[in-house]
Amino acid sequence: MNEKAKELGLENSHFESPHGLDSEGHYTTAYELAILTDYALQNPTFLNLVSTKNYTVTINGYPKTLSNTNELLGNLNGVYGVKTGFTNGANRCLVTACKRGEMDVICVVLGADTKSFRTKDSVKLIEYAFNTYQYFDIKSFVTNSLSTWQEDNPNFFLVEKGCSNSLELKVGTSLDDCPVVPIKKDLISTIETDFLVHPYLQSPISNGDCLGSLKVFSKDTVIAEFDLLSANSVRKNNVLDYMFDFFKAYPKQLTSLLYEQT
Fold first, then answer.
1. Which pLDDT does position 240 carry in this prediction?
2. DSSP letter at 235?
3. How far is CA 256 from CA 60, 62, 201, 243, in A?
4. CATH number of the domain that 183 lies in?
5. Which portions of the chain are predicted below pLDDT 70?
6. Does residue 118 form part of some domain?
7. Is the bond leading into 63 cis (omega within 30 degrees of zero)?
8. Nearest to 230 by CA among 209, 201, 212, 200
9. Do 142 and 52 share a structural domain?
10. Given this model, what pLDDT does residue 177 score?
């Protein structure tokens, strides 16, 4: 158990027994219980157990109905688990998983004096989360922002001694790996992007070279930051390029010179 806790990054959790009864060396935190719960819910068997309200088993030929002690299961919209708990040292505890629409919340209440307090505090926290936050799709926001920036800045780059000044940008990190993060609803309209890209570059430029960065922020808080890479290459001019440019410009230069002489 302690090896698994370390694997999950639970730095403030330690187990001395599988049953969890009071012991000085047996401890955890609300936050790390939420991490552990999130991991456990990936197990289909565990998910099925904690989301079952009632189950009937047969003991010595007689049916026996077992009831889930989670008082929110079946009584609060979206709740599908997870676990109640009580010891003299911990008092009343409840870890709740609740999903409404696309948003999934894990709520942890520890140390409540009574079952009633545990229930009320859990409901307040869950309702607060759904009323206050909504998911924000970073992938779509960054993709649209980068596309708009490039359309608004078609001649942004000047590549010294390059065969072209045409450069396309791409995000360094795969946007498919970007999380859909919860953001306070009243902050959604304040989310902006900041492009930190230098227009003057030295050739050659290779596909994948870092040309700057993009920050997604709300007020003074940075939500995400990405490297901006070149999506194409620009080679350095060679002798043939300079000759081509010369002969291309030569007729215009000759016409201008003759005009001045006349």
1. 60
2. P
3. 109, 108, 32, 20
4. 2.60.410.10
5. 238-262
6. no
7. no
8. 209
9. no
10. 74
Query: How confident is the model at residue 254, as a pLDDT?
Result: 45
CA distance 95 to 69: 12
Residue 255 lies in a domain: no
> 204 lies in which domain range?
136-237
Q: What is residue 241's predicted lDDT score, i.e. its pLDDT? A: 56
| Tokens found for residue 85 | 């708990």
What length does the chain have? 262
Q: Is 191 exposed, middle or buried (0-12, 13-18, 19+ CB in 10 A)?
A: middle
Considering the domain boundaries, does residue 44 fall inside one?
yes
Q: Tell me, yes or no, whether 172 and 219 share the same domain.
A: yes
Q: Torsion angle of alpha carbons 29, 47, 96, 185, nearest 10°? A: 100
Looking at the structure of the chain, the number of domains it has is: 2
The two three-digit tokens of residue 190, written as one number: 């304040």
Return d(Cα 85, Cα 69) in angstroms, integer.
Answer: 9
Name 109's bridge partners.
94
Determine the Cα–Cα distance for residues 212 and 80; give it in Å rounded to an integer: 44
Is the same domain home to 60 and 9? yes
DSSP 8-state secondary structure symbol assigned to residue 113 = S
The answer to whether 70 and 52 have CB atoms below 8 angstroms apart is: no
